[in-house]
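Z., the sequence and structure:
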Amino acid sequence: MSIAREYNFDGLVGPSHNYAGLSFGNVASSRNFGSVANPKQAALQGLAKMRALASRGFAQAVLPPQLRPNFSLLRTVGFSGSDAEVIARASRDAPAILACAYSASPMWTANAATVSPSADTADGRTHFTVANLNNKLHRSFEHVETERALRAIFADEKFFAVHGALPSTPAFGDEGAANHTRLCASYGMSGVEVFAYGRVEFEPDAPAPRHFPARQTLEASQAIARRHGLHEQRTIFVQQDPATIDQGVFHNDVIAVGNGNVLFYHQQAFVNEAETISALRRAMENVGAELRPIRVTAGEVSVADAVSSYLFNSQLLYRPDGRMVLVVPQECRENQAVSRYLQNLVESEDPIDELISFDLRQSMRNGGGPACLRLRVVLNDAEATAMHQGVIMTEDLHGQLVAWVQRHYRDRLAPEDLADPMLAIEIRTALDELTGILRLPGLYDFQR
């Protein structure tokens, strides 16, 4: 059997990183609306995490930022003239739409797509379905460039199938891998794919949140499972607790994370917790594995503390010795209840026995932690060789990207700075150079 590894594709924070508070339901995003951002620091923080994990032997790659501002969006909604005139008019008449066009949210690649490895799919290929992200304007147009990037990196159709986004309608609201996880005995063997959804479109009496939107529908999750050719007995659909969504858990990866046969979750993550865990146990038995749930009670960590610290929006990674490391944001060390829980966790008999923390303050203030920044892709040796090699994180690539960020990124960006027409020119210049570094020519429209 070919050896398989989990690659983490981290999003490189884009030069337009700013705090526009565009994501209703994301508490951190709303709380920091209007603050001054530091795009340079944000990108360097993300690169530091990538380098540190790659140096420890974890398979690490990078996904490029998207072109901003999105002039197609601005022109579609009625702004005309030269690029500078479009920016000036949008800034004057509709600054919120201009902020949407400038959003750097593609950095959160957990929302880029849902990924099923070849061991799970009917045709033996790795399948990607690009997320439509239609719940928010600033993210609803990401899927075009996301699909283009994934097709460039995973171009060999012998090994990969990249599907476009589902229909852009509320019935098929899809937020990608942030609402999906995979459990297995080992990466190269058939696993259990777990889809978490917030509401059911065609069952109006089904439970749903009352305050914040449920961004993933059951119908979208089922459609992705069909597209990927997943086995019915190894595919589980679970519903997020609506009351927990209303406390700011806008994606399931804010309240649960899985890897291997371990599910690390909060007791208030799912509707009917006991039934959910029982269903997962049965499904895991179908792949010859025993589920190891790590349950965090509300008495140990409240939902509010989980949301503010992003305890569950962490990366759960296998070390070569089979033990697990939890990659957490620095905020977990600073929250007393969470820090105490984590100390007890690593001293227990549970498989998680190491913590690594990173300063991701710029990302965290916009509502995304370590898990938001990465898309997990399980690849066997042949698939890893077939994918584009220019995005794999190495010491050399890290050095090139740090120097690139230092040359092109601003260290201060306030909402009013989006009106500066030079920002758009700076971003285009930077991305033109980036495609040479990553060996992805013609990735952006302006290069074609």
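The chain has one domain: 4-68+103-447. The chain has a mean pLDDT of 94.

Let me know what you think.
H.
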